[in-house]
Specification:
Helices cover 38% and strands 28% of the residues. It has 258 residues and is α+β, with helices and mostly antiparallel strands. The strands form 2 sheets. The protein has a 7-stranded antiparallel sheet with strand order 4-10-9-8-7-6-5. The protein has a 3-stranded antiparallel sheet with strand order 1-3-2. Helix 1 packs antiparallel against helix 4.
Length: 258
C-alpha cells in the first residue's frame, strides 16, 4: 500500500534533480507540451528526458493526456501545495498567498490538469463534490446548488448568497465523471473571460481515489483567477475527507460568512 509518506518521498526525490526542476519550469512556462518540444530544450538524449518525465509522473508532479498521436505533459502543482499546507503555510502565509496571482501564457486553447490521490471511496468523493455544505468546506466557502442532471444549471454562491459563478452540467455520471461549463462572476476581470469547462474524473485505486480535474476551453493568457485556486481547493478536499478538518490557509474561507 502506498502511504502519504511514500508519496512525499517521491515528490522530494523528483525535485532533488536540477534537470527535473528545469522540466517543471518549462511546463510552468508553457503547459501541455509534447516530448519532442521538451527534448529540444535539453542537451541530453530523448531517453534521458523520458526517464526524468517518468519520475515526475510517478511523483504526481506531471500529468499526461493524449491528443491525437501525441502525449502532452502538464504541470500538476497539487503535490507541492500539499507540502506547503503541511509545513510552510503556518510560517509564510502572506508570501504563499501572493503566488496565486502569477500568470503564464499557455497554448491555445488553454488547459490546466490537476491530479490528487485521496483515501476515500468514489461515492464519498462524489458526495463531497456535489453537496453544497461540504463543497463550502474546501472551496473558499463557496456553496454549489444544482440537481446534478445533464443540462441542468449549477450556481455557485458565497455564504451570504452572492452569486459567484454559474454553468451548465454537460455530463453527469456518478460517481465517476462530472463535466460542467463555468462562468466566473466574482469580479469584472473574470467576467470578461467568458465560458470555460471543468471536468472531474474519479478512479478508484486500491483503498484510495485518483481525482483528476481538467479546466480547459480558456483563452490563451486567461486571467489566473480562473484556475489558480485549484491546488488549494484540491488540497482542502483531501484534508477534509481524510481528517475532517478545514484548511485555514489564505483565502480558504474567502466567501464564507464572517
Amino acid at each position: 500500500m502506498v502511504t502519504y509518506s511514500d508519496r512525499m518521498d517521491a515528490v522530494f526525490k523528483a525535485l532533488a534533480d536540477p534537470t527535473r526542476r528545469r522540466l517543471l519550469d518549462e511546463l510552468f512556462r508553457e503547459d501541455g507540451q509534447p516530448l519532442r518540444a521538451l527534448e529540444a530544450r535539453f542537451d541530453i538524449t530523448r531517453f534521458g528526458v523520458m526517464k526524468h518525465l517518468k519520475l515526475l509522473e510517478q511523483a504526481g508532479l506531471v500529468v499526461t493526456r493524449r491528443r491525437g498521436r501525441e502525449k502532452l505533459h502538464y504541470l500538476n502543482p497539487v503535490p507541492i501545495r500539499l507540502v506547503h499546507d503541511r509545513w510552510v503555510s503556518k510560517y509564510a502565509e502572506p508570501w504563499a498567498a501572493g503566488l496565486s496571482g502569477l500568470k503564464t501564457r499557455l497554448e491555445t486553447p488553454m488547459e490546466k490538469v490537476f491530479e490528487i490521490y485521496i483515501r476515500t471511496t468514489p461515492e464519498r468523493l462524489w458526495e463531497a463534490i456535489t453537496d453544497s455544505e461540504t463543497r463550502a468546506k474546501f472551496q473558499f466557502g463557496t456553496k454549489v446548488f444544482s440537481d446534478w442532471t445533464p443540462g441542468s444549471r449549477a450556481e455557485y454562491r458565497s455564504g451570504d448568497g452572492v452569486v459567484l459563478g454559474e454553468g451548465e452540467n454537460l455530463e453527469v455520471d456518478p460517481p465517476r465523471r462530472l463535466v460542467s461549463t463555468m462562468n466566473a462572476l466574482w469580479d469584472d476581470d473574470v467576467k470578461r473571460e467568458g465560458t470555460s469547462r471543468v471536468t472531474w474524473e474519479i478512479e478508484q485505486v486500491a483503498d484510495s481515489c485518483r481525482l483528476t480535474v481538467t479546466h480547459d476551453q480558456m483563452r490563451e493568457g486567461a486571467n489566473s483567477q480562473l484556475y489558480g485556486g485549484w491546488p488549494m481547493i484540491l488540497s482542502g478536499l483531501k484534508t477534509w475527507l481524510e481528517t475532517g478538518e478545514v484548511l485555514t490557509t489564505p483565502g480558504s474561507l474567502m466567501y464564507s460568512n464572517g
